[in-house]
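[Automated response] Your request has been received and processed.

Submitted sequence:
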Amino acid sequence: MNSVIYELRANNIKDEDIEIIMDRVKNRLSEENLDIELQKLGYPKIFTVDYDNYDYDSFDDYDDFELMQKSDKYSDFD
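Generated structure:
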């Protein structure tokens, strides 16, 4: 239970909202139920990811990979 409270605090959830959330999920503690209660209070999900609605393009960072491929640093192993 302490790790859940720590995670909520680490994500800037107000202490009074943490108390509300923990009271609501005390008998049905799960990642899904925590996120449902977070959303009811206007917070984003913290514990689960909805992969169907996930924005994969936000991590479209191929520049580093392309730089690694073009690097001559490791090409001279003759």
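Summary generated for your ticket: The chain is about 50% helix and 0% strand. The longest helix spans residues 15-25.
If you did not submit this request, please reply to this message.
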